[in-house]
Amino acid sequence: MLIDTHCHLDAAEFDADRNEVLAAALAAGVDKLLIPAVAVNGFQKTKTTAALSPACHAAYGIHPLYVMAAGEGDLAELRTWLAREQPLAVGEIGLDFYVPGLDAARQEYFFVEQLKLAREFNLPVLLHVRRAVDQVLKHLRRIRVPGGIAHAFNGSRQQAEEFIKLGFKLGFGGAMTYAGSTRIRELAASLPADSIVLETDAPDIPPAWLNRGRNQPAELRQIAEVLAELRGISFVEACRQTTANARQVLPGI
């Protein structure tokens, strides 16, 4: 069994062939997919997409790249969805200090308010931490939530250890498949076995063999093979361990 802990199957890139993409993932041994929303106006599409199969689960949150268009009413709407839908997680939320021109203070406000909602509903969070790992950790220490996943982790070993101390798993996917991603590959090879989960972030972060083409959840099988090779373990063991890790941090999946 494989669990794709971060897959935007609801994205427009899959509108033409979503059912086929899902079928290919299931055929490849991806038994569970977690689909995080990115904006309130997309929550219904995320829900509809997750309803395509018992293998799919939705998470609801406001992505840091979308908070510029969000308002207070969006936080109230998110709270309504969390109460009604009882999802597995709040996400995708976090901070992005890589994309230029974004209001850092506004990002932090929405991040903090969504952490408070996760705490209120006792839900783990799916974190976007691009060039903002230390700032994310600062808020997590202040507003304790029941763990979650640092998606597409690309920080230092020390930062990884801080997430682990707070009850988080670290998401590894396509970036790990590039020979030049030496830091990510070293972390994937050497972090504690119970700290790693797998993801595709499809349609984004395509693995090396796709040559920048559209990523999809079926690629998780080969991504798991890369993890197994890096850690010097069998493919079966890589699947078993990462699945157990995902189930630990995402009860109910």
SSE layout and pairings?
Blueprint (H helix, E strand, L loop, with lengths): L1 E3 L13 H10 L2 E7 L6 H8 L5 E4 L12 H14 L4 E7 L7 H17 L4 E6 L2 H10 L5 E4 L5 H9 L2 E5 L9 H9 L5 E3 L21 H12 L3 H15 L4
Parallel strand pairs: 1-2, 2-3, 4-5, 5-6, 6-7, 7-8
What attributes characterize this protein structure?
TIM Barrel; 9 helices; three-stranded parallel β-sheet; 253 residues; 41% helix; single chain; 8 strands
Characterise this structure.
The protein is an alpha/beta fold. It has nine helices and eight strands. It has one domain (2-249): Alpha-Beta Barrel (TIM Barrel). It has helices spanning 18-27, 43-50, 72-85, 104-120, 133-142, 157-165, 182-190, 220-231, 235-249; strands at residues 2-4, 30-36, 56-59, 90-96, 125-130, 148-151, 168-172, 196-198. Strands 4-5-6-7-8 form a five-stranded parallel beta sheet. It has a three-stranded parallel beta sheet with strand order 1-2-3, sandwiched between helices. The model has no long low-confidence stretch (mean pLDDT 97).
